[in-house]
Amino acid sequence: MKQLLTAVIILTALTTQLHAATLEEKVVEHKMKNGMKLLLVERHTSPTVSAWIRFRVGSVDERSDERGIAHLLEHMLFKGTTTLGTKDFAAEKPLLDKIEEIAQALTVEKARHDKADVAKITGLEKQLASLEADASKYVIKDEFFELYSKNGGTGYNAFTSRDGTTYLISLPANKLELWAAIESDRLQNAVLREFYTERSVVMEERRRSYDADPESKLWETFVASSFLAHSYGQPTIGWMSDIENLTRTKAEQFFHSYYAPNNAIVAIVGDIDTKATIDMVERYFGAIKPGKEPPPVTTIEPKQSGERRIELVAEAEPTVIMGFHKPAIASPDDYVFDVINMILGSGRTSRFYKKLVIEKQVASDIGAFDAPGHRYPSMFVISANPRSPHTAREVEEAVQTELDLLKTVPVAKRDLQRILNKIEYEEARRMGTNGGLARNLTEYEATAGSWLYMTEHKSHIAKIVPEDIMRVAATYFTKENRTVGFITKKAGDK
Amino acid sequence: MRTLIISLCMLGTLTTPSFSAEQSLANPRTIKFPELNFQIPKAERVVLECGMPVYLLRDTELPIINLTAMVRVGSVYEPAAKSGLASMVGSVMRSGGAGGIAPEKMDDELEFMASAVESAIGSDMGTVSLATLKKNLGPTLQTFRDVLLLPDFKEKRLEIARSQVVEALRRQNDDPKEIAGREVGRAIYAGHPLGDITTFESVSSITRQDLVDFHQRYFRLDNMILAVSGDFEQAALIKELNSIFKPVKYSSIIELPQVAQPKQLFQGEVLYGKKDVNQTVIRMGHLGLTKEAPDIYAVRLLDYILGGSFTSRLTMEIRTNQGLAYSVGSHFDIGRRFTGSFVAETETKAESTAKTINLMKKIITELTKEPVSDAELSAAREYMINSFMFGFTSPSSIVNQRARLEYYGYPDGYLEKYRDNIAKVTKKDILSAALKYLHTDAFKLVVIGDSTKFDQPLSTFGTVRELDLKLNIPKPQ
C-alpha cells in the first residue's frame, strides 16, 4: 500500500494531462448488493480525500409528532456506538434505559403546561440529573471527533435539509480506512447517549438561527405559510414545542426506519485507488443488511388559488421575500426555471441587479433561488432588501414588472448564450475540490435520481427557446400563485 | 421524477449478501495506516521586468486560470473622518468602469465569457482577482489590468456604492450577532484605526477625488505581488504579463504611512446592547499578539485546546456537558501586521446569560492556573501536524499562500518548519503563553439581549455602559 501510494504520487507529478477529463469519464459508479451506492472519483491533486454519506431522509419525511427529529438525530449520531464513545457499554446501558424512562415522564408532565405538577417536575429533573451524572462516568466524549482529528481529519460535520441528511469528512489519503471503520460502525451500532443535553443544544441552535435573527424568522414563517399540506412547510429544525417533546425512543425509531445501506449514497473523491477503495468499502459495509424501502411523501400541496401575504413585525429594517410554486428538480419546466433564475438573478448583468439595484435603485441587494427543497415541487424565491426611502412594496412591484416582462418579450439570443457559457465554466470549476464534487454527486444522486443530472444539465438548457420562457413565466408568475413575506419595523424603533 | 427515484431504490432491495465478517475489520482506536510522506508543494517565483514578483503554479486538471494581485494598502491608511474610503475604493474600482470601458460594457463582456474580475480592500490588504476559462485569458487579463491600474470611478457608480453602504449602516443593528461582533472589535481596538467604524457622516464625506487619490497612491507596480495558478503556458503568460505591466518610472519610491500598534491598555469593560430576543449574544476579549512573538506555536495549541475545536474545553463544558449553547468557542487571531486579538464567544438563552459568562471566564482562567493534560497536548499536536496538508489542496491556495507569506513578511522556511515548531511545544510553554496572553479581568465583555430576563444583573461583572443602538441618521442638509 505504501509503495502504491508513492508510485501514484510520482506518476501524477510527472505526467502532463493532454486534455481535461470530463466528469462522465471520471466518476466510477458501484452499486453494492445491499443497495448502497458508491460514487468514486480519483483526483491526485493533493494526498487528501473527502468522503460524504448522504441518507435519503430529511425533515420532509417527518410526521407531525416528530418534527425536528431528522435534524436532532443527525446531532445524536455523533455520540458514539456500543464500542466507541463508551468505556463499558454493558454497564452504561441500564442507566440509559432508566434515563429514557424518567425523561419521558418528565416530557409528558411538562407538556401539561399550566396544569403540570411542579413538584413532580422538580423531582423528575433531579432524578434525571443524577442519572445523567452516573451515566456520564462511562462516556468518552466525542470520541469520533477525537479519532478523526488526531488523524488529521478536517471538516467533520453533518447537515440536514428538507430532502436529505449528509455526513462528511476530509482525511489524509492514507487514512480512509478509519472513515470506513467508524461510519460502518455508526450505521449499525449507534448509541444515542446524552440525548436530553443535546436536545437543549438544538433549542439553542433554534434560538440562534431563527428566533433571534429577523431575516431567518421571516424565512421560516414564509415557507410555513407557503405549504399548507406538504411537509416542505415545516422547519427542518422543528418548532420549539416540537423539539421540547422529542424523545430518544422517537429518534431511535426514525434511525431504524431510514438509516440503511439501501438508503445511502456514498461519494469518495480524492487521492484514492478506485478498485482498492471499492474493496475496502465492501469489506466494512457489505455485510450490513438492507432495510425496508422508506415510503415517499404522498401529500400533494393543493394548488394555491390566491395571493398570501405574510407580515413579520421585528426590530429590523424591511426585507421582502416573494415565492411562486414550481415543479420538482429535473422536470421539464424546472430547466426553464434554471434559465429564468440566471437571467433574473445571476451576476452583474442579471435583470434584477441592473434594474432594481443600478437603474431604479429601489433595492440594495437582491437574489433569486429555489427553495425549500428539490425532491418535491418547491418554490422559486426572490429575496431583496429595499433601499431606504424605498419601501418593500415598491421592490415587490419592480420585481413583478420584471417577471411580467418575461411573459411578453422574448429573451435575446445573446442572453441564452451567456447562460450556456456560464454553465461551461461551472462544469469545469465544480471538479476543482474534493468536497465540492462529493457534495454535488451525493446531492444530485439523491434529489434528481442520478449524478448524471449534472452532465446532462447543459444539453437540457441548450434546448430551451424564448417561447418556453414566456410560457413558464405566464404559467407560474401569477398573483394567485404568489406568496409575499415582509418585515415591518417595530413601531418606536428609529 | 418521483417514479425515477422509486425505481432506483427498488434496485436496492435484493438479496442479503453472504459476506464473511471474519475478514479483518480494524478497530478505529488502534488502526494502523500506511505511511504518507507529505511534501509541501512549491510555487515558482518569477520577477517581471517591472519588478513585480509573481508566484506561479501550473496545473492542467481544469481548463481554468486564477490570478490574484495583492496590493499593500488597507483601511488602516484611511483618515478616521473618511472611514469607509478604502472599502469603497475596492468596490468602485470594479463597479465604476475602467480603462475607458463603461461599467455596463465591462459587466457584459466579462459575464459573456463567464470570466470574473473582482476587487476589494480589507484592513491591511487590497486584492484584485481574476478567474477565467483558459480560452478567455487574453481579454480577461486586459480587464484585470484596467481594474487594477486604470479605474474610472464613474460618479454615478460611486453614488450607488455610497447608498449601499448607507443602507448597510441602517441594517447594522438588525442581527444581534453582528452588533456584538462589531462592538467587541471597537472596544478592543479603541483609539486605533482597526477600531474605527464607518458612520453615516464618514461615508457622506467621501468624494470622487478621495477615491482617485487613494487609488493612485497605493496601486503601483512596485507595491504588489501576483499569484497565478491553473492551466497556462508559463513562457507565454510571463510574456503577456510583461507586456501589460510595462516598467513605470515613478517620481518617488513608494512610502506607506506609519501606523502605530494598538496600545496594550488592559482594562476591563462591560458593554450592553438591548434587543428584544430570547437568546443573548456574548463576546469577550482583548488584544493578543503578532506573528513575531516567539510563542505563537504555543498559542496555536492553546487556542485549539481552549476553544478551537469540537472537543475544546469551552465546547465540551458549555455545549456538550451542559447544553447551554449551540456555538461556543474562542480564537486568537494572530496579528500579521498589527497586534491581533483574543475573543471568546457564544449565545445562550437569556435565562442562562450570567451563568454562561461565569463559566467561560472560569474555563479560561483555569488554563492560566494549571498545565493542560498530556492527552490534550497530544491531541492538539497530532491534529495540527496531521491536518497540515489541507492548507495545500488546490493550486490557487498554494500560490496565494506563498504570495501572502511574502506580503506579510513571514520568515523564510515558515511553512517548512511549521510542523516541527508545533511538535516542540510543551505543557509548560502553553501555561506560560496562557499566563502571558489571557487576562479575564481585562476582558471587554459585550452582551446583546434582553437584560430583564437575565439570571443575574450584568453589573455583577462591572460597571455597565449601555450601547446606543439607535441609528441616529443625520438630517439631510
Calculate the mean pLDDT score of chain B and round it. Answer: 94
Number of helices of chain A: 19
Q: Could you name the CATH class of the largest domain in chain B?
A: Alpha Beta
Order of helices and strands of chain A: HHEEEHHHHEEHHHHHEHEEHHEEHHHHHE
| Sheet/helix structural class of chain B | alpha+beta
Q: Which radius of gyration of chain B do the C-alpha atoms yield?
A: 26 Å
Count up the domains of chain B: 2
Give an account of the 3D structure:
With 494 residues, chain A is α+β, with helices and mostly antiparallel strands. Chain A is built from 19 helices and eleven strands. Chain A has helices at 2-14, 23-26, 69-76, 89-110, 118-136, 143-150, 176-189, 195-211, 214-226, 240-244, 248-258, 274-285, 332-345, 351-359, 392-408, 413-429, 434-447, 452-462, 466-476; strands at residues 27-31, 37-42, 48-55, 154-160, 165-172, 264-270, 308-314, 320-326, 363-371, 378-386, 482-489. In chain A, strands 1-2-6-3-5-4 form a six-stranded mixed β-sheet, sandwiched between helices. The longest helix of chain A has 22 residues, at 89-110. With 477 residues, chain B is α+β, with helices and mostly antiparallel strands. Chain B folds into two domains: 44-244, Metalloenzyme, LuxS/M16 peptidase-like (Cytochrome Bc1 Complex, Chain A, domain 1), CATH 3.30.830; 269-466, Metalloenzyme, LuxS/M16 peptidase-like (Cytochrome Bc1 Complex, Chain A, domain 1, 2-Layer Sandwich). Helices cover 39% and strands 16% of the residues of chain B. Chain B contains 16 helices and twelve strands. Chain B has helices spanning 2-10, 85-95, 103-112, 137-149, 155-170, 176-188, 200-204, 208-218, 234-244, 296-307, 313-321, 353-369, 374-386, 395-408, 414-424, 427-437, and strands at residues 44-47, 53-58, 64-71, 116-121, 126-133, 224-230, 269-274, 279-287, 328-333, 341-349, 444-449, 464-466. In chain B, strand 4 (116-121) and strand 5 (126-133) form a beta hairpin. In chain B, helix 2 crosses helix 5 (155-170) and helix 2 crosses helix 8. Chain B starts with a helix and ends in an 11-residue tail after the last strand. At the A-B interface, helix 1, helix 6, helix 7, helix 8 and helix 12 of A face helix 1, helix 3, helix 5, helix 11 and strand 10 of B.
